[in-house]
Amino acid sequence: MAAAGGQQRRRGGRREMRRIEDTTRRQVTFSKRRKGLLKKASELSVLCDAEVALLVFSPRGRFFHFASAPSLEGTIDRYISHTQEAPANKKPRELTVKNMKSQSETLAMEIDTVEAYTRKMQGENLESCSLQELHGLEMQMEKSLSSIRLQKASKWSQCAIYVVAVQKKLMDKISQLQQQEKILSEENALLLDQGKVQHAPIGAPAREMNQNQHVQDIDVDTELVIGRR
């Protein structure tokens, strides 16, 4: 019977380690065991006063590390110096080439895994998937769609807020321009009135006074004539 974590019991109580086929279970197991591994590395460095450096890359390429020394690069440099002091039949160049080859193979496997997972998320090569793995892909797709919808709603909300703010600024500007137009119209009318007063004929008031005086004289003469009769 297959056990959790990709382990299979063999005769004698021993377990055979193998890759977990289900994507969801594999991710959950990676997260749990990564935390446990980092914890064990920290405990080893504290209990035994050892210099420990741990590097972990997830199937999706995320990088996790632990370093008991102040600098992870310092521990790596120490490791490189130690490997360069290997026996003569293992030259540093050969070790470097071997290390690079191992890293390239590991990266190639990780790329294949990511590409296979991507094709499955796109609905391709699903014939070899188990029912549980298909269910995991379906849950992942629903989760992704939910996240996309939330982001879309957030973007629409931001756009609506921006449009309202722009409309308010435009209305305020229009109101300000209308107020300025009213003030300019009043000032223009006042200037026109002042211009009319300044351009009025200079002798007009004197003529009006002479006419008034003439009317008064006529009135007086009339009264005198009536009095004689």
UniProtKB/TrEMBL annotation:
Which part of the chain is the MADS-box domain? Answer: 10-70
Q: Entry's Gene3D superfamilies? A: Transcription factor, MADS-box (3.40.1810.10)
Q: Which residues form a coiled coil?
A: 167-194
Q: Which GO terms describe its cellular component?
A: nucleus
**Per the UniProt entry, what is one GO biological process?**
positive regulation of transcription by RNA polymerase II
The yes or no answer to whether the keyword Transcription is present is: yes
What positions does the domain K-box occupy? 97-203
Keywords, A to Z? Answer: Coiled coil, DNA-binding, Nucleus, Transcription, Transcription regulation
Give the UniProt subcellular location, in the record's own words.
Answer: Nucleus
Q: Determine the domain of life of the protein's source.
A: Eukaryota
- Which terms in the Gene Ontology molecular function aspect does this entry carry? DNA-binding transcription factor activity; protein dimerization activity; RNA polymerase II transcription regulatory region sequence-specific DNA binding
Q: Per the record, where are the segments of Basic and acidic residues compositional bias?
A: 14-25
Q: Where is this region: Disordered?
A: 1-26
InterPro entries xrefs: MADS-box/MEF2_TF, MEF2-like_N, TF_Kbox, TF_MADSbox, TF_MADSbox_sf
Q: What is its main location?
A: nucleus
Q: What is this protein called?
A: MADS-box domain-containing protein
